[in-house]
Amino acid sequence: MKKLFIFFRLFLFLVLSGKITNGQKKYIFERPEMGSPFTITIYTADSMAASRAATAAFRRADTLNGLLSDYIDSSEINRLSATSGQGRFVTVSPPLFDILCRSLEAARLSRGRYDITIGPIVRLWRTARKTKVFPNADALAAALQTTGYHYVHLDTLHHSVWLEQPGMKLDVGGLGKGFVAQAALDLLKGYGFQAAMVNAGGKIVIGSSPPGRAGWVIGINAPGEKEELMPDLLLLQHIAVATSGDIYQYVEFNGKRYSHIVDPRTGIGLTRRRNVTAIAADGTTADWLATACSILPLRKSLKLIRHFPGGALFITEVRNGKIIQKSSVNFRKYQINQADSHLFK
Questions:
Q1: What pLDDT sits at residue 308?
Q2: pLDDT confidence of residue 18
Q3: Which of 162-171, 175-184, 329-338 has the lowest mean pLDDT?
Q4: How far apart are CA 235 and CA 220, in angstroms?
């Protein structure tokens, strides 16, 4: 699955851009993370207050990273994974318990296409991408034996977790960026900034519309393109959007392309060329929906999105050199044409 937000502790810088609107300006704060930016945008008349709020939001992201990243040996999630197979419940922090609850809900609704327990398989594929050597079949089979979200047991009264199967390693990469982005936006709102947006490597959470506008204009990458956008853009407010695909992370073996997104049932990276954009009420939900619907069949993906009021999907898939596009019935209500986008800026 996707790499999980390891933030570098670099100097926070401020970029002023955009026109003054109703006495407010647009302030953009950005810090790099593993090659992709984590960006906070705030509309306000008080630049110093915006800077303080953005600094607090980045600090919150750092804290969550220290708890949730499986790249950090001492992280809370790795310490929890180390207790797997010991036959006991372990008390965890509220943020970790919260994301575990959300992960198990995602697993149940997606019928296991999103599965937080595939950490051992993800690590094999990370090594494969670095070494350019296909994962060993025996190693994959052994890793699959340690996975299964039904082996994760939660005690909601005591905020404790029991990992039943020995060798389990949790990985929240399929919804972690959305979770952190949502936490950052919630903190900004607590500071009084409602017209704000947080973009965590393409997992975007959005507050109120900018002053004098109908919403935030968001672009979707064209299939297989890093820079080119689809003709239609999105106009969003009070919602989240996430896109998942293999534009940036994949590996090729014997002429076949394998995505960083792994099917939990087989342990194999996806070979299907599909990009999924999911819109949902919060960043965590949008993130895992984009992941799960990269794996689910198209029909089941479109059925799944019906569980979420206001939710929408847009899926592009390359089959035999042809691009197939499918969207949920309500996706169109969020769309505007690029030719008309100037009306909303």
A1: 96
A2: 46
A3: 329-338
A4: 11
Helix (H, G, I), strand (E, B), or coil: what is residue 78? helix
Return the bridge partners of 323, or none: 318
Least confident span in 49-53, 147-151, 161-165, 269-273: 269-273
Radius of gyration of the chain, Cα coordinates, nearest whole angstrom: 20
Mean pLDDT of the residues in the chain? 87
Region for 25 from its dihedrals, namely left if φ exceeds 0, alpha if ψ lies in -120 to 50, beta otherwise: beta
Burial class (CB in 10 A: 0-12, 13-18, 19+), 26: buried
CB 279 within 8 A of CB 238: no
**Alpha carbons 170 and 20: distance in angstroms, whole number:** 46
Rounded alpha-carbon distances, angstroms, from residue 296 to 167, 207, 232, 263, 272: 27, 30, 25, 9, 11
pTM for the model stands at 0.89
The structural domains of the chain, with segments of one domain joined by +, span: 86-163
Residues written for the chain = 345
Show the tokens assigned to 199. 């973009």
pLDDT score of 219: 87
pLDDT in tens, 99-130: 999 999 999 999 999 999 999 999 999 998 88
Distance separating alpha carbons of residues 1 and 118, to the nearest angstrom: 9
Better-scored residue on pLDDT, 202 or 96: 96
Q: 333 vs 40, 53, 91, 213, 232, CA distance in Å?
A: 26, 32, 44, 17, 11
Q: Which tokens sit at 269?
A: 């990276």
Among residues 160, 196, 166, the alpha carbon closest in space to that of 283 is found at 196
Choosing among 3.60.10.10, 1.10.3980.10, 2.60.120.10, 2.40.128.630, the CATH entry for 86-163 is 1.10.3980.10
Rounded (5°) CA angle 156-159-164: 85
Cα separation of 229 and 304, whole Å?
26
